[in-house]
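Quick one from the shared queue. A colleague (R.T.) flagged 2-dehydro-3-deoxyphosphogalactonate aldolase as missing a structural entry in our internal table.

Convert sequence to structure tokens.
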Amino acid sequence: MFRQALAANGLIAILRGVRPDEVEAIGHALYDAGFRIIEVPLNSPQPLESIARLRKVLPRDCLIGAGTVLDATQVAEVWSAGGELIVMPHGDPQVIRAAKAAGLSVAPGVATPTEAFAALAEGADVLKLFPAEQLGPGVLKAWRAVLPAATALLPVGGITPESLAAYRRAGAAGFGLGSALYAPGMDADEVARRAQAFVQAATAPIPLP
């Protein structure tokens, strides 16, 4: 289901800092804009409640998950809340294994080819290229030459609508979107406006360099 949801436009909403009392309106705004993957980082206020609320109110074709998952215990908590995706800032093999054992999709964070190959060996569904603003499109392009052809690389960190084209040319399969899409205090209308800009950039023809 993860690859199907990612195929919609390649965009993953990262709602770091979102509160349960506002997450449903923001989730609806993102879904209406075309997003089909939404992540609530576990260092947000009451993240498991937000995950449960999103899973309850959004259609099943929208994948709901957790970010900043650091250990296997948290994987179990996310599963209990109805989460379907585990996103990590690192590539801890124990967390990857726990996610796969629970039947969840998993996107570990990697910053070197060694980490990338190790995460794939453990069963990672996609690789989170993090932090993308330090690594850049050139690194992604180089990795594409050596990683298995079917590997989905998702830059995360500092991504804006304006920066999507360079990463798409380099072979990005999608993007994790943080503060340029949502930051604490934003209302659903503002998130909708930003979401539409990202969807437009992600689905437009890739311009020549």
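The mean pLDDT is 96.
The CA atoms of residues 61 and 208 lie 33 Å apart.
Added to the table.
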